[in-house]
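Notes continue from the previous slide.

Worked example: a multi-chain complex. Inputs as given:
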Amino acid sequence: MLHFDSDYMEGAHPAIIERLAATNLDQTSGYGTDEVCERARQRIREACACPEAAVYFLVGGTQANAAVADQILRPWEGIVSATTGHITAHEAGAVEACGRKTLPLPQHDGKLDAAEVRAYCEAYWADENREHIVAPGAVYISHPTEYGTVYSLVELEALSQVCRDFGMRLFMDGARLGYGLAAVGADVALPDIARLCDAFYIGGTKVGALCGEAVVFTKPGLDDHFFTLMKKRGALLAKGRFLGLQFDVLFEEEDGGLRYENAGRHAVALAQRLAEGFRAKGYDLHLDSPTNQQFVVLDDDAKARLAEHASFGFWELAPDGRTVVRFATSWATRPEAVDELLALL
Amino acid sequence: MLHFDSDYMEGAHPAIIERLAATNLDQTSGYGTDEVCERARQRIREACACPEAAVYFLVGGTQANAAVADQILRPWEGIVSATTGHITAHEAGAVEACGRKTLPLPQHDGKLDAAEVRAYCEAYWADENREHIVAPGAVYISHPTEYGTVYSLVELEALSQVCRDFGMRLFMDGARLGYGLAAVGADVALPDIARLCDAFYIGGTKVGALCGEAVVFTKPGLDDHFFTLMKKRGALLAKGRFLGLQFDVLFEEEDGGLRYENAGRHAVALAQRLAEGFRAKGYDLHLDSPTNQQFVVLDDDAKARLAEHASFGFWELAPDGRTVVRFATSWATRPEAVDELLALL
Amino acid sequence: MLHFDSDYMEGAHPAIIERLAATNLDQTSGYGTDEVCERARQRIREACACPEAAVYFLVGGTQANAAVADQILRPWEGIVSATTGHITAHEAGAVEACGRKTLPLPQHDGKLDAAEVRAYCEAYWADENREHIVAPGAVYISHPTEYGTVYSLVELEALSQVCRDFGMRLFMDGARLGYGLAAVGADVALPDIARLCDAFYIGGTKVGALCGEAVVFTKPGLDDHFFTLMKKRGALLAKGRFLGLQFDVLFEEEDGGLRYENAGRHAVALAQRLAEGFRAKGYDLHLDSPTNQQFVVLDDDAKARLAEHASFGFWELAPDGRTVVRFATSWATRPEAVDELLALL
Amino acid sequence: MLHFDSDYMEGAHPAIIERLAATNLDQTSGYGTDEVCERARQRIREACACPEAAVYFLVGGTQANAAVADQILRPWEGIVSATTGHITAHEAGAVEACGRKTLPLPQHDGKLDAAEVRAYCEAYWADENREHIVAPGAVYISHPTEYGTVYSLVELEALSQVCRDFGMRLFMDGARLGYGLAAVGADVALPDIARLCDAFYIGGTKVGALCGEAVVFTKPGLDDHFFTLMKKRGALLAKGRFLGLQFDVLFEEEDGGLRYENAGRHAVALAQRLAEGFRAKGYDLHLDSPTNQQFVVLDDDAKARLAEHASFGFWELAPDGRTVVRFATSWATRPEAVDELLALL
């Protein structure tokens, strides 16, 4: 059976396992105060060209999303998200469990449109009864989105400008950021993200780590007492160095790039090969994804046939009654597995 | 420098690291639905002699405490705890962040007294205005406690009986359970805990895992939709098998006992040697701890002298102005380190 | 200046003021345990033909909405609402402040469509990853809606059936219920509401009371410990009899009907006369409202001209750039005021 | 039957009922934006000699306590309270329902001791792990306390100084403030409270209003967006003028004093007469209360005998097995009722 269900089916990048073994009996202080975490933070600051960034290591994406939303919102504010944003659609109400409201706006291939965000904010500020309403205080975007799409630099700049204009913070969920940085045609690099966002996270879980997301606050003060908020939200790991170590390894150079970048490139290349293969065999793709997730539209027969030899994710029903399914590659996907899958078509 | 600051300074039991390496590229489903987790669950059910137990793997102790409290309390209830209970004293308000109230009662060497809990409940139920008050809905105990002490079987049975009598759930925080099971004179075993508590967790982080706590619900129905609550609280790990694997390894037999038990025995034996050494040199111990944490009362001179060669934890000021400090051993403590520490006295 | 801003500009029905004066120095027990409240409850149960209904008096609408949502939802559930539902659009995140998520669906003249709710639920239950998602646990409707429209009996039965089919509770926000009962063509009476909804409230604030909403739970058990939840949410009035008294008065017979019903009829009749007047003068109405709120589309000139002599509420921008404004009548509106307003057109 | 159960058994000061009747059909804007509220605010600012004070009208005490606590605490902070403080002991967890922790300290006749608060704060700030702990961010006191006692000016200044020294806000629950201002030997006046506290409220419900508490923020900025927080917490009244009117009436001069002060004096004088009467007949008082609540220790016989002709409140069991009961007078208590009660002894 070939598995393309998700990008978190394997363990970790072998270099992480090696480092874990090599340093296992080292003794360090807890809660991320150790030097391994500090070294990882430094590597991330450098990769982001953001020397003043504050970096925290959390365990998972939903946790990171809720903790950051809780941190960056003021009591009367909510967070704008595309209707398909993970934060509002697939996290069991984690943001609301913090007493915060998500403010859904239409999605376009999974993305928010800056002009629509602007119009929403203008309407809020023009409303003389706005004190009865949750204020838009931050904007949440995922990059890549839940549909594998990415923001262009122009799009990201436009969103950032809207946030600047209305006193909002811009927060990027980078659970799959490695695949976004390596996306076909990508023109957004880490320093752009650090410059344009107030907070974002670099996803480890889906890009080569056992678990772990590196939350980056790019503006001074925005992380005030975030350590205590992490504790309060159950997001503070005792053996913090275990998370730091993984990012330390992923942000080391190897073969002319950061391991994190290389992992992204590997997965994207295989996903694109997969997409081309599907197209060549006459299959319809739900949309044009430049990253590691590919959404294919299958009729019931094709779905059943493929499911005998491969596993993949159900996504949604297409309007015509067929099914949209997801094939995900990862840093760990073997090229042979892609070939074998394509041979099945 | 000798480090006795805490029991979470090293990585993981070497057998865990080996297993991680050996299974790294295995592909499994996510969120704890895989067979590694299922095997670990089965081992835990067997060790607890509780075949119907529902077992979930969470990442850390504060997270487990808050999630379980949130799960087992009804909307009008709070959770009784000793004033020194971790849940009310040292978790940054994680339970309150779930909208729940902790109900503090006096501590006795870190423990709750069943008679005092009973009196508290009787007063609540006798109060004709009790509907204005948070009801005692659950009792939280830590075992070992924050002072390294443990409940005897008689004490645990008494607490369980109070809970039965007043319709409350009994929840044991076992962040250091391995050291409690191995405590000097311990007469409480896992099957006792499973029989007497409604929920408890088996601490991994401090007893040989990189991270991870195995939450056990012993009564059917009490875990209803706990999976979604975990997601909502940011406590659901994508690569759940990483947590399951660690408990799978820790609950394997090795040298005539479960690895988890052996790890506990190792640490307790060294801690007891440490305590005897301190006593032999004329030092005062704050209380009689039968587990891996030892609380020594030091005057400023002794503290400064020791601190040159060893690190340990500040605990609290003693009434006479001296300082109570904590020395913690763990599964990873080297016997030589204990000898070297004692030689410094 | 003529005031049509809202239906809560005056004090209370004169009979309420008289009763307050007449009973002012009576001594009663607190928190709604008095006989005045009990008499009001009994009147409401009779008007609803629901002898087993549990009735609670709360102070205001947002408070009632949040308290009921918090009460009727289980921890993993959220509440479906039209995007324009007050609960999600205009209550400053009160439901989310209880840790609950609102689940917005499209609005049709302010109403939910039962078929769309059904499709939403079917999709949820068909989703194999639904445990990662907030479950639809209740449906919120306002009647009349924020646009003055009402559900027909057929529509309400359809929504109730969807709720039955998917184990959801149906909750009606009746902040303006008196105007809904008296709506032009209304075929939904209190006994229908009590039969088809699991919880609803009879709005006092906007229909003749100084303040107060009577929350009715129609199914046994659904109000379990709601008294304590009210206390916890700051919604329990010490002098509860003040609220009970108002509903006692409003649900007394006077002139062949309940005062509450008569108040509704008065306002609706005047609003309809207003609507006819606007139409007769060539004004566009935004939609056909059968209740006490009328939404008129004005260009800037007309708006400015009218605003010199009358006050009304801004509602929203129409797609063509004109403005939708609201004129509200109430139990207290003088017929002469309507005539004077129409004379201004 | 003579009723001394509580100070909220009657309606409102007759002048309030008169004003309600006289202004009933006036039309005003909603949510406290009207001129009646503004006039009441101005009267309160003057009585407090605090021209810059921000004043908001809420409906009840628990609501006011939770809303203010939520407003004045930062995310990592909790609120210190005596163990008997209403906020932690008798409000069903309303503060915790906002995600906030109450930090209980010992009570002394219902009061906090400034030196103990200082010691608590010193210990917090000396703790190098304090970021794992809820920070003391505010201090809650009730004045009068739940035992009818009051803070002296010296005591209040000391508490205020501790708050200044540790960057905490001081919040006074004045649910019975009128009785505190009129307490025997009282040396704390409204301007002192405004000067020494950051926030407090002037209780209406128990001192002559039908309902209503006037929350006063004395320092600029502390009420930032409090209007929206009120809405979010269900504490914003649509017909706000109903609350403003009551304070407008209570803070008018009548017979050489504010009505609010006169109401307090009336109740305290009668309560003192009651206390003297009890003492003269050989009854034990639980403590020396200078306000309108008197706590008498009764054996079962005396309690049963009195209960035939008078109602009063159960308070707590005395250590010797007798019962502490409460007799409360109010602005509405008739002197004859006191005489009749004393005649029963």
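Summary box: The first helix of chain A runs from residue 14 to 22. The interface with chain D takes residues 70-71, 74-76, 98-99, 131-132, 135, 225, 227-229, 231-232 of chain A (CB under 8 Å).
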